[in-house]
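Reading a protein record of the kind used here takes little practice once its layout is understood. Each number in the token line that follows is a code from a learned vocabulary of backbone shapes. One such record is shown here in full, so that the layout can be seen directly:
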Amino acid sequence: MTSLVALLVASLAASVEALAAGGPVSGVPGSLVLLSGASGSVGGVPAVLPSGLPVPGVPLQGTGGALDAVLWPLYWLLDGWSALCFRLASLTGLEVLQYQFMHRALLVGLCIGVMAPLIGTFLVHRQLALIGDALAHTAFAGVAVGLFLNAVLDLGVSPYLTAVVVAMVAALLIELISEATDAYNDVSMAIVLSTGFALGTVLISLNAGGLAVSVDQYLFGNLSTVSRENAAILLVLFGVIVATVAVTRNQLLYVTFDEVAAEVAGIPVVWYNRVMVTLTALVVVGAMQIMGVILVAAMLVVPVAGAAQVARSFSGALLASVVLAELAVLLGIGIAYYAEATAGGVVVLTAVAIYAAAVVAGKLLATRRDETTVETGRIGADAGDVGSD
């Protein structure tokens, strides 16, 4: 770990020094560093060095805002991650590591591989697997709200920020509908899902103020549209989710398996239920960048279902689900890049294939355990017979 951090810092320092001087990063062709699009930016996003110096030949567009000032430390981290990826590209020759938009996509994917099963493990055991789908459709409404406000009022707000707000409100609304009407959770989820998607389609269809955008990237996800700003927002969500679960793990576990006993023990069950659905909303919005609205729920469920086939404890299932999710994300992104396919679909198909393999492995392990148990019983019976003789 220490050597990895040292390599990251050294790579970042060398990259800053070289680029500030107007030259390429050592070991990386200059064309790979200055991959500018039509807008003169890297992957559609202005390239700014951690020191605040612009990348030579790339204009500073859209920088200097309040959000950029808040996210500046995370931009520095993203630049360091890109420097490390460029170093790995020069060492391995992997084409997928030679582009900055893929660096951001890989980092976002790695974060999703932790966040989604971390929350999904609790959801699956609480039989709330479909809540991710409901919140994904309301997150789409949040994106539509952001695009609408930008078109009408020219606010310049990130659609992913409005998606976070709308998804969190929808998550709490699902809980409130269930509590106020005594309806089952699936009823409240269906109501919120249909309402959110209807609102999103109406706002997108309106041509108010010149609103005319392609929604494909939000519906299906897109590796090349993961901007620096959105990646930084995802890192914030990642930190909030992991920290919250780390602090409240025992209470969430208690509420997941026995709400009545948890309430008798003095745990505020309603509050922790709302914490769980709120965290789910954050995961959904974060994963939406790559997975898209339609497929984002799969990462909350499929790796967890696969882990349940091979794990024998909750902690084991949690760890195994993260491993399976990371494997699905990395393989899926790599396959999608080289096959020029939609990343979200490939990641989900990869996760399903891993799930199928886990089912087979689980059956084989169960058969082996049964055989071991039977053999142990026979040895015990034989030893008893010998003792009686």
